[in-house]
Amino acid sequence: MALTEITGHDKPIARLTRARCAGRLPHGLIFAGPEGIGKKLTAQHWGKLLLCKSPGSAGHADQTSWPLGLTEIDDACGQCFSCRLVAAGNHPDLHLITRELIKFTKEGKNRQGIALTIDVVREFLIAPAATAPSQGGAAVFIIDGAEHILPAAQNALLKTLEEPPGDTYIILVTSRPDRLLPTVRSRCQTIFFNTLSLDFVSERLLATGVAESEAAYWAEFTQGSLGTALGLSEMQLYDMACELTRRLAGLTAANALDTAEWMVNAAKEYGKKVTEENKEYSASAATRDGQHQILNMLIHAFNRAMRCQVNYVADSYDTDAAIKEITSRFDLPALADTVRATHEAHEKIDANVNPTLIFESLLLGYLQDMPVFV
Fold this sequence. Notes:
This protein is an alpha/beta fold. The protein has two domains: 3-192, P-loop containing nucleotide triphosphate hydrolases (Rossmann fold, 3-Layer(aba) Sandwich), CATH 3.40.50.300; 235-373, Up-down Bundle (Zinc Finger, Delta Prime, domain 3). 52% of the residues lie in helices and 9% in strands. It contains 15 helices and seven strands. It has helices spanning 10-21, 39-51, 81-88, 118-129, 151-162, 182-185, 198-207, 212-221, 226-234, 238-249, 256-277, 283-311, 320-329, 332-350, 355-368; strands at residues 28-32, 56-59, 72-75, 94-97, 139-144, 168-174, 189-192. The longest helix is centred in the C-terminal third of the chain and has 29 residues, at 283-311. The protein is globular and about 70 Å long. 40% of the residues are buried.
């Protein structure tokens, strides 16, 4: 795949191209946008271009001009020794930095981490950046999930960002740029990436064999994040999402605690699926991700119910009946309150509050918001 073949991110790529052509490409970049929309993919291909020995020009994939008045952009040749090393995944000057690297640090002792620690940043970015690139050209460091960099590690990174050695480029890929310190953001140029169209995501899912109702669900659930939608469909989580929606529709004081327990177990099952696919991923981080996904599924169900309240129709999913039941039990102000409370539960999970208590409190709060039963 070439840089010019990346779908939906013409403006960020064109902006990077103009800066590079003008000789004003910053050495520190922040690629910001929702999860799973292609930020990391773009960073990797941009890094490939920066390392390429014979870059060439390429037109737009659909034969129209690029944004910002560009008719073509530079792209990696794909044939030189550097490009072949990148394609093989072992270019010594293209560094991908993730939380999982903690187990390879001097003090890591095969630990699994839920954060990017100062040891990871020092050993896999700061130290290598201080040495000459192996291939004599540029050096590119891509920090995936930069929102997980601990404050101490961000502070340690400041000098390298401010005074990068030679042709050293650091790209921080993040869905939460607000979690980066102001001092880090001020030393980088932020490039914003938007979500893809829901129709495009749905079509890609259909092409992989996903059923129409499931494809529509994941496209909307992820709000146009193709990578996330593909990942969730591959993990076969659609039945879990439907079951959660049905449990929400039938929620009572008698079954609230059982439903909370089911949610805790569902999050663990999600975490298990993640770690089965990626052995290097922290089990605790994967379970926490599952807890966030359960909350996102609740929010999605309530948002669908709000649309049903306004339009008097449900969406064409397998849980139409459940959504209509939720709509009959909550009025619009109550639905808005439930969404607000569920968003607040995300913060409690990040604060390491017991997930069982979070889910129990949340569900009991939903019951109090049901005007029909008050």
